[in-house]
Write a sequence for this structure.
């Protein structure tokens, strides 16, 4: 195994302030204590050079284990909380896993056939940290939203942190928070920003209500808060949102439409509101901080900050150091021969900006006319009474399919006006969209299901 | 409202929404000439499923689509029994 002098996550905390914490609902850990301590019972040397499955149940133990293991383990496979246990065997085999990190809440039968099982727990126990041979650790993330066996996407720390160009003052004054889980790409970005930037991080806990999470974010004085547009829409419906006052509000993982950007602007008038475009495979591609949906058209074609964008067959392609370098255990290639990753996101140019129109796989065919549900949702979401919406196909004997919409209103008290409101939303759609894109029916629903990845579940059943 | 009146009511509404002019809605009117295009019919069938609770065409095993308005109404009347 090649020994390297490349930086590891441990180096990032060497000079961080002692005021840097990870918090979750159950407790906290001062992660700079890892400079002279361990959360793995001092067993890091046993894990050196191994392919390690991180199967911790809580985000807090995950956060600690990753700092100890980066630069020591050959490979870290991070298991997201909603990973299906049916696929675990195949995943473990594909990644050549020979050790597993668990915590007190990991089910005993999870990955029980892996011989080396190491427990991770706060508190961090003081210990002499012997320097281990430094290796370049492969970080393996599992993709979300696909059926069947998940894909294993390989990154390294340099690529994962490629988009973090502005180091923040490592004074512990920044407090990051995220609605994401740090075991997914979007959440991992926030975790790495906190750890590498010498900031604290407020983590969510399994099964925690949004209001309780917001209360904890407020208690710790969150300054930087991140989530998907769906998670933000849900958070804006909770009164506790008024108690947080982040300086920086970040959206990623789904299309940020103008309605959600405007709602966040109204909720946080003084904050910088940025939407990032990133994916597990393509990495962080760009950040947009002007408060407008879409992104400037001149991002496409040139090289900006080491990221090159082009459009082929309507979809965005990315070549970047931040992109993953491949899939593990699959012959499938991640990039084309020129090193571009196809994001599967369809772009549409309007004036001097590109807008995301939808996904290559998510098209609804209405009598031969193609429709992206996201485009219709963006129009419905602009209605002042609408919080969020889901547009889905409905089978139809004439055109194969038509579109219908499920809509969540901003306030429950609109009951008496529902028929009027339905007509109003439809009228709004008719004025803006071609006929075939106007939903044939609108249903008001109390909530829409959001997957563990933070994205709207397109198959709600 | 009877099935027939419901259908006529919906056809008129869809024609208004789509900016189409309907031919006089008589029993023997050939649907293809009524003024609604295929998207109009798609919307009609979807709306009727909402109001009448049935979509006789998607439920049917054979892909039969009526030719005249009278036949169209009969398909719905049948399906309701």
């Amino acid at each position: 195994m090649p020994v390297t002098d490349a930086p590891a996550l441990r180096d990032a905390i060497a000079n961080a302030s002692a005021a840097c914490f990870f918090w979750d609902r159950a407790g906290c850990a001062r992660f700079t204590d890892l400079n002279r301590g361990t959360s793995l019972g001092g067993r890091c040397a046993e894990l050196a050079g191994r392919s390690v499955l991180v199967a911790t149940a809580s985000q807090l133990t995950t956060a600690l284990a990753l700092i100890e293991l980066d630069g020591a383990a050959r490979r870290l496979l991070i298991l997201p909380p909603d990973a299906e246990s049916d696929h675990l065997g195949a995943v473990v085999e594909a990644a050549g896993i020979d050790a597993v990190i668990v915590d007190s809440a990991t089910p005993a039968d999870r990955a029980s056939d892996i011989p080396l099982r190491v427990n991770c727990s706060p508190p961090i126990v003081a210990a002499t940290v012997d320097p281990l041979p430094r290796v370049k650790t492969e970080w393996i993330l599992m993709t979300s939203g696909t059926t069947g066996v998940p894909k294993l996407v390989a990154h390294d720390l340099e690529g994962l942190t490629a988009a973090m160009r502005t180091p923040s003052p490592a004074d512990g004054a920044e407090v990051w928070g995220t609605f994401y889980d740090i075991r997914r790409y979007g959440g991992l970005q926030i975790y790495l920003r906190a750890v590498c930037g010498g900031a604290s991080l407020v983590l969510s806990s399994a099964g925690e209500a949004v209001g309780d999470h917001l209360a904890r974010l407020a208690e710790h004085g969150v300054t930087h808060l991140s989530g998907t547009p769906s998670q933000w829409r849900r958070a804006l419906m909770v009164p506790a949102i008024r108690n947080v006052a982040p300086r920086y509000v970040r959206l990623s993982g789904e299309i940020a439409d103008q309605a959600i950007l405007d709602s966040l602007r109204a909720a946080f008038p003084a904050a910088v509101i940025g939407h990032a475009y990133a994916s597990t495979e393509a990495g962080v591609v760009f950040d947009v901080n002007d408060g407008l949906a879409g992104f400037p058209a001149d991002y496409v074609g040139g090289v900006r900050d080491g990221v090159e964008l082009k459009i082929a067959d309507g979809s965005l392609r990315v070549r970047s150091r931040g992109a993953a370098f491949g899939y593990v255990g699959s012959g499938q290639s991640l990039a084309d021969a020129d090193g571009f990753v196809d994001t599967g996101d369809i772009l549409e140019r309007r004036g001097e900006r590109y807008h995301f129109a939808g996904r290559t796989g998510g098209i609804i065919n209405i009598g031969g006319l193609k429709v992206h549900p996201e485009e219709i949702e963006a129009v419905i979401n602009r209605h002042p009474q609408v919080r969020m919406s889901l547009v889905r196909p409905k089978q139809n004997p004439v055109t194969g399919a038509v579109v219908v919409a499920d809509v969540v209103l901003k306030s429950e008290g609109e009951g008496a006006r529902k028929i009027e409101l339905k007509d109003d939303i439809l009228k709004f759609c008719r004025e803006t969209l071609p006929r075939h894109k106007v939903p044939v029916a609108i249903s008001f629903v109390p909530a829409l299901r959001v997957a563990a990845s933070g994205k709207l579940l397109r198959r709600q059943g | 409202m009877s099935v027939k009146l419901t259908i006529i009511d919906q056809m008129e509404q869809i024609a208004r929404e789509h900016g189409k002019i309907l031919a006089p809605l008589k029993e023997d009117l050939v649907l293809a000439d009524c003024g609604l295009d295929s998207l109009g019919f798609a919307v009609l069938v979807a709306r009727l499923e909402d109001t009448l609770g049935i979509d006789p065409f998607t439920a049917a095993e054979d892909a039969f689509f009526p030719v005249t308005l009278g036949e169209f109404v009969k398909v719905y009347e049948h399906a309701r029994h």
